[in-house]
Amino acid sequence: MGMTIAVDGPAAAGKGTISRALALHFGFGHLDTGLLYRATAARVLGGDDPEVAARDLGPADLERRDLREAAVAAKASEVAAIPAVRASLLQFQRDFARRGSGAVLDGRDIGTVICPDAEVKLFVIAAPEIRARRRFDELVAGGETTDYETVLADVRARDARDMGRADAPMRPANDAVEIDTSDLSIDEAVARAVGIVENART
Ligand code: CDP
């Protein structure tokens, strides 16, 4: 029987990197739940109604090449505050979490709402300035033209919106283990996460 690992935290804290590495290490599936909200947002930017976009999401929507763009991220945190959007995306995430081999899901509300029974819950954080620097580097590497101050302002605005919404706000579950990646290399952060999961398995 596989286990479920919930990895939550704010933008660019290192959730995705840690989650992919955990999935690889333990042979589990990985779902980046932010992609569901980004794909919904991309359709809304194209003129769709948010509820309809979330309900009708298909595999092709998740493969769009624009999902990592800053405008899509900003819109994602707006549509993510709409309860009907969250409700439409819930069952898919729960089904993924209970796949036989085990699953890692990363997002904002995995440990609190989607998988409150997850065997391991991590809450990954880092200082906003460090997260903004990482996200700036990613966006520039992806070909976007932007500046650090704009990215920092976007990160702060999105944090506030994700923490402040009424439905499934971003917060650590009571039994989550925090990993602060501000001063950790990727290898150190991954090693810490692997250690926490190994402890929980024994
Ligand atoms: O990669 P990054 O952390 O910047 O963003 P993401 O994980 O792709 O999520 C984009 C937006 O989707 C977030 O700012 C949240 O508003 C929303 N989201 C959410 O509400 N719940 C989740 N489980 C995942 C993402």
- CATH architecture grouping: 3-Layer(aba) Sandwich
Strand order of the largest sheet: 2-3-1-4-5
What structural category characterises the helix and strand content?
alpha/beta
Name of the CATH first level: Alpha Beta
Q: How many domains make up the coordinates?
A: 1
The helical percent reads: 40-55%
Strand content: 5-15%
The main β sheet shows up as: 5 strands, parallel
Give the count of helical stretches.
Answer: 10
CATH topology: Rossmann fold
Principal-axes shape call? globular
- What integer is the average pLDDT? 96
The helix-strand sequence is EHEHHHHHEHEHHEH
Uncertain spans, ≥5 residues at pLDDT below 50?
A: none
Which small-molecule species are bound to the chains here? cytidine-5'-diphosphate
Total beta strand runs:
5
Radius of gyration, CA atoms, in whole angstroms: 16 Å
Can I get a quick summary?
The chain has 202 residues and is α/β, with parallel strands linked by helices.
Question: Can you walk through the features of this model?
Answer:
This protein is an alpha/beta fold. It has one domain (4-201): P-loop containing nucleotide triphosphate hydrolases (Rossmann fold). 55% of the residues lie in helices and 12% in strands. It has a five-stranded parallel sheet, with helices on both faces. Helix 1 packs across helix 10 (186-201), helix 5 (70-79) runs parallel beside helix 9 and helix 8 (128-141) packs across helix 9 (148-164). The chain starts with a strand and ends with a helix. The model has no long low-confidence stretch (mean pLDDT 96). It binds cytidine-5'-diphosphate (CDP). Residues 11-12, 33-34, 37-38, 73, 76-77, 80, 107-109, 158, 162 line the site of cytidine-5'-diphosphate.
